[in-house]
Amino acid sequence: xxxxxxxxxxxxxxxxxxxxxxxxxxxxxxxxxxxxxxxxxxxxxxxxxxxxxxxxxxxxxxxxxxxxxxxxxxxxxxxxxxxxxxxxxxxxxxxxxxxxxxxxxxxxxxxxxxxxxxxxxxxxxxxxxxxxxxxxxxxxxxxxxxxx
Length: 148
Prior knowledge:
Elements lengths: L3 H11 L3 H10 L4 H19 L6 E8 L5 E9 L2 H4 L2 H16 L11 E2 L2 E5 H12 L4 E9 L1
Antiparallel strand pairs: 1-2, 2-5, 3-4
Helix pairs in contact: 1-2, 2-3, 3-6
């Protein structure tokens, strides 16, 4: 039996469903770090399967830094309007804007950059987590960064 507190903690840290967190913890014999690796591997596989599916919905998100000298925009696509309207999808789009504003993608391709909130995770892995979470393909169609 897996400790409920560990399941809650893993769920809070990953945003993945309770059932998937419990399965990963059982497989990892209660080790949270091993469970995270299991989830990462699982979501990579799920992401690869879903990448073939068409994305016709999505949102455009924009961010302007407080000094009004740097801004970023993204066009983030998904499969359904339901997902596009969800707060989690909108949060992902916002996080991508923050990433672009903070780390100019001209230096290192955006998907290969380490995420500014968690240096152990690349942007492509962050997107893969959301693909697995929603069960839908997500595509970062376009992005731009402005700086004065």
